[in-house]
Amino acid sequence: MLWNRMAHRNLVILTGAGVSAESGVPTFRADDGLWMGHRIEDVATPEAFARDPALVQDFYNRRRRQLATVHPNAAHHALAELAARWEGDFLLVTQNVDDLHDRAHAANPPAAGFELIHMHGELLKAHCAATGRICDWTGDLAVHEPSPHHPQGRLRPHIVWFGEMPLQMDRIEAALARCDLFVAIGTSGAVYPAAGFVELARHAGARTVEINLEPTMGRRRFDEGLYGPATETVPAFCD
Ligand code: BJW
Fold first, then answer.
1. Is 40 in the pocket of ligand 1 (CB under 6 A)?
2. What percent of the chain has pLDDT over 90?
């Protein structure tokens, strides 16, 4: 065990693309900066969707299909096991839009104080552009998919694009304000507001730990770092 569980009751863990990388889901900011042939900034904005809805729907349709071919890895399962036995509050905030954490927790139901938030949305959901109402969506979305919630509405991916407000920020900020252990796993810290969570946790007096393949640009903001593939470091950390 790498940490004293008794000294920490309120835990917040932030995950990013690195936690799903070994499941076969590509990360966003690999060396070439490309994501399925696109710069993420060119497809993950409301402006891109208005300009070229076919390109954006196709981008998310391909990712939704790919999700059916991947599985949770040892890091997702270690976090689910931790959630099953954690006695305090445990907020798992993921920036990932895949459902790999959800599947791991479904196989290992969490204790009462646990909550999972997808702050950047979910690939397997769509929302009505007119009403904001959310529905499950496992297949492809048509370019102008009619909304079941509004006669003139169209469905779009339930994804938080650049310039849009991430989801459930009130709950996340409230948990950070009282957390005493904050861990960021597999995220580059390139995107705000998630990149600023470590500062909110530090302000609350929390111990802060970065777990990543390699030290990130934000390494100095953390008390400690643990480096290597998530499928090895996360189970070791959670043990
Ligand atoms: C491994 C590994 C292995 C690899 N094991 N590790 C302040 C300053 C400057 C700009 C802004 C600012 N505030 C807001 C902005 C604007 C903008 C922003 O941050 N822009 C930046 C480019 C600078 N932010 C926004 O627009 C956000 N909205 C917003 O701020 O609203 C206003 C607001 C104000 C105040 C409070 C609250 C709100 C919205 C951001 C939406 C991000 N959306 C995306 C795409 C949609 C989802 C999708 O299509 O999938 O979300 S962008 C993309 O980046 C995706 C990710 O969730 C996100 C983070 O990426 P992540 O997960 O960190 O991945 P990578 O690839 O960057 O890193 C992977 C890491 O894993 C690396 O470190 C590897 O080393 C590691 N790794 N293999 C362990 N095996």
1. yes
2. 86
Atom 50, ligand 1: which residue's CA is nearest? 97
Helix, coil or strand: residue 207: strand
Q: What are the C-alpha distances in Å from 7 to residues 19, 135, 169?
A: 25, 40, 26
pLDDT at 1 over 60: no
Q: Per-domain residue ranges for the chain?
A: 5-238
pLDDT digits (tens, 9 = 90+) for 140-187: 999 999 998 889 899 999 999 999 999 999 999 999 999 999 999 999
Residue 34 has pLDDT above 70, yes or no: no
| CA–CA–CA angle 207, 168, 45 (5° rounding) | 105
**Ligand 1 touching residue 169 (CB < 6 A):** yes
Q: Is 140 labeled as ligand-binding?
A: no
Centroid of ligand 1 to alpha carbon of 151 (angstroms) = 34
* Statement: residue 232 has pLDDT above 70: yes
215 CB under 6 A from ligand 1?
no
Please state the atom number of ligand 1 nearest to the C-alpha of residue 119: 57
| Percentage of residues of the chain with pLDDT beyond 70 | 95
| Residue numbers annotated as active site | 120
Specify the CATH number of the domain 5-238. Answer: 3.40.50.1220
